[in-house]
Structures are given as structure tokens and as C-alpha cells.
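Re-running the complex after MR caught last week's input typo. The corrected sequence lines follow. Everything else is unchanged.
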Amino acid sequence: MKLFEELKRINIFAGDFGSGKTEIALNCAAKINETGKKVALVDLDLINPYFRTRLVKKNFEDKGIKVISPQGKLANADIPALSPAIYGVLEGQNYHGVFDVGGGDIGSVVLGRFTDYLPEGSFNFFLVVNTCRPFTRDAGGIIKVLREIENTCRLKFTAIVSNTNLGPATDAATVLEGYRITSQAARILNLPVAFICALEKLAGSLKDIDVPVLPLTLFMKVPWLL
Amino acid sequence: MSKILMKGNEAIGEGAVRAGCRYFFGYPITPQSELTHFLAKRLPEVGGLYMQAESEVASINMVYGASCAGARVMTSSSGPGISLMQEGLSYLAGAELPSVVVNLMRGGPGLGNIAPSQADYFQATKGGGHGDYHLIVLAPNSVQELLDMTQTAFDLADKYRNPVMIMADGVMGQMMEPVELADQLEIKQVAKPWATTGTDYHEGRNLINSCYVIPEQMEDLNNRLEKKYADITRNEQQCEGYLLEDAEIVLVAFGMASRICRAVVEKARAGGIPAGLIRPITLWPFPMEFVSKVADKAKIFLAVELNMGQMMEDVKLAASGRAPVYHYGRLGGMIPDVREVLREVEKLYRGGVGQ
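Corrected-run output:
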């Protein structure tokens, strides 16, 4: 996709709890990797003990993607342990960095410590939005969440990602209605909607949309579907 | 009806708000912290109070206080926090105070870990605190049920003036599923003439206490509780059966394990093994009658739990020796996968029933 050839070197995904940051970060890392660039996937989620990037470490390392997450037994803990390798991604020029941040303002606290390494204009900072989630059902809610995260991590979002879904109950109408609400918020905020996400099987049926659609492959699965 | 995507933890919080609960006292612990985060945001929206207590001992006693005053009130925790609450739970049962307590089980014993578990079954259903008492224990297995059963929990608590526990595990709390939210709320709050709301609101003096220094009076309370527990046992057993009609090997599982076992039963049947599933929804009262009826026909039971074999003992009591009861479990926060449970089903069936 053209989108992934033109991305800035550092791409950070934040948003409210359960907005889909991890799946999108994984998909983006895989897509950038396909363009032939070197990719580092950074797990900054210190608050969610389940369904986080580190669970797919092996799978992604096999693709040649560098996965930076707490090492050894720290991987199973819920303590604020950050790898020094994160600075390598930010300061060096070798890797395209994809950052998966924890949910909400609480989850984005961790990002604040890296602001000195993120000069304005050098990165994409995406707000991931699912309008089927409890606190981001309308433009007002989306803007409130955006402000809470920005105030906590001291970085300004550069774009919004429309990721509206109802899990397995998602249809094209769900995705389009989510994009409509997200666009409203984006207009008020004067931010672009960078892209829309939809499961691979739905992505093809989304027509006449003025932004790119990222077809998603899901990596996190519940135990009874393994 | 509107449909939204919720985490299990959030669904419990929303269920409480929709049941008219306006007070939550708790202390964050993984894997239920999102429930406290959610209610910290949600309760002020409806004029409620969220308070982070200094410990779980404090939160359960704050629940005691709010319940005395007639409020619908909830707390939640996991593993070590629930253990700290046991004294308070016994007091709530003794003083007959309606309240809802959520346990999102994690790996133990001790500090254990933050991975999912079902090892608090004994603690929840057989006491845990001191004295002769029972909690009503509900075991939802989907995000929708977490929402709906939290509402049910408040109704049961008020109906029987008894603490109710919602038991789930870390995965249930963390996973996301679509849920239907009713547009119209119908909150069935019952009158609480016993509550200590002040003499402007009730005749004479209301006293709430669990201290009976005279043994005859203590026994009167015990007898009353015993009768209440018998009523609950008679009226409130809930259970779900799946493909039991011709089942020879019957899996018994609650919560997350029942989701895994449903997939196992389907795979077993595809492979020619007549398997079925019993899914207890109330863990106390355990659905003795349902399991007992199935034991008339079934040839073998397999209890599948994320523990060493706790609910299995109740399955044995219900089967009363009419069919052997086996157990398969993973421990320490590990989750059994469909393939390994299926292998166990095949082994038991070929080794016993299927010959």
C-alpha cells in the first residue's frame, strides 16, 4: 500500500482502552516490513496484562521484525519495565519504529518520558478510535479522550485512525458509521483521518471512501478459538 | 437496544450502574483494574461515588456500611484481595447485608501471578470466611452475561439479603465482545425497611449487627440463615446443557472453561464421540438437580477447570456414584486448549465407555 511507503520513520498508536491499537500496530509493522524497510515494533503497553504485542513476539521475529518488549519473566508482569533498546529506535536512523501504547490517559503516561526524543514533525502520532466503545461513541467523547491523552503524554496527535468495529458482529455499515463520526471529530480537531481499518473480508466491500482502507489480519485470539 | 463493544471488566461496571448501584469501593489489582478505572469515570456521570480504599479490608467494610444504609453497593478484586475480604464477607453474611463482590480469579496460591485461573472455587462456594454461611456465586461466560448477571446479582442480593459473588477470570475480564444495551432501564429496587436510614424513614430503632453473645440467639440467626440457604438452593440453581440428549461422556465446566469445552464437544462429536456439556451458571447453589438427572444416563463425567479439581467434588456429589467423575485441569494461570481437552475426552472414551 502506498500509505506504508510514505509513513514517517516513527509511528505511534494510542487511544482509549480496547480501541484496537495493538492489532493495528501489528498490522502496520507487518505492512512496513513488506515494503522492505527494517521495522522495530515497540510494546509500550504497561497496563494491560493480556492481549499485548509481546504475545506474538516469536511470530514477528520470524518475519524479520525486531520486537522490543520487557524481557524474560518481566514479560508476564504488570510492572513498569521498559527496554533501553527503545532509545535505539528513537535516536538511531536504522529502524522504522511502530509504537503500541497502553490504553487511555493511564496507558499513555509511559510515552511522556520519550517526548525529548520526539521533535515536532518527526513522527506520526495516531489516535485510534472505535466509536462502538463506551467512551468514544460521538465526536465529543473522541475529543475528550484525545485531550486526556495529549495532556498526559505531552505530545499532540497528528492524525486519527478510524477503527470502528463490533468484533465478530461488525458489518460494512458499522465501519462506515464509525468513519462518519470519526470524521466529525477530525474536522473539529483539524486533523486528518489517516486511514480506516476493517477486517480483510469487509475491506473489499467498502467503496467510495476518500481515505485508504487497511485490511486487518487479527493476531490476538481468545482461547476457545485457538 | 444499542450494540457496543465492551471489555468484560467494563461490562461488569456498566451492569452495576444499570442495576442502580451508585457506590463502589475498591482497590486496583490486575486483572480487574479496568473495572475500577471504568467506574471511576462512569459513576460520577450518574451522580455516584467511586472511592479507592486504602486496602481491600477497608473496601469490604465500606461495602458493609453502605449496605447498612440501604444502598446498592459493589466491590471487586482478585486473588490476594479477595482473601483479605473474607472476614468482611462473613460479617456481611452474618448481618444479612445485600452486596455484590466481584472476583476475577488469577493464578495462585500466594501472590501468584496475573494470568487467568479458577482456583478460588472452594473459597467462594464452601465458605472462605468463618462460620456457617453461603455466598450466592454466579459464573458468567461471556461479556454479555457479565453485564446481565451483574444486574441479576443485585436483585438476588436484595431478594435474599445476602452477599452475591460474581466469579470470572482474567481472560473474561480482559476480552472484548459486542453487548446489547437496553435503551430503557427498569431497576427493580426493593424496599429495605431494615436499613439504618434514620428514624425519619423508619419506625423505632434499626440495628444491624452480627454479634450474638448469647448462644441461643446466635442459633436463632443460624437457623434463619439455614432456612434462607435452603430456599436459595431450591429456587436459584441455574445451569445450561449442550447436546446432552444422547451424550455418553459429559463435560462439566463453568466460565471460560465452558467456552473451551463447547468447542471440544463439537470436535468430539465430529470425530464420532457422543459428548455433551453441562455448564453450571450458579456455582452456589450448585445445580445438583440438573447434574443428578444427567447422571441417570451419562456413562462418564469429565470436569474441566483451571484448578486441581474443585468443582469436580460437587459433580461427584451430584452423580452419587452412578457414573465416574474425572478431572482435567491446567494450573498456575495456564489455559487448556481445545486440542488437549479433546485428547483427554478421546482417551477416557476409548479407555472406558466406547469399548
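None of the earlier attempt is carried over here. Residues 172-189 of chain A form the longest helix (18 residues). The first strand of chain A starts at residue 10 and ends at 15.
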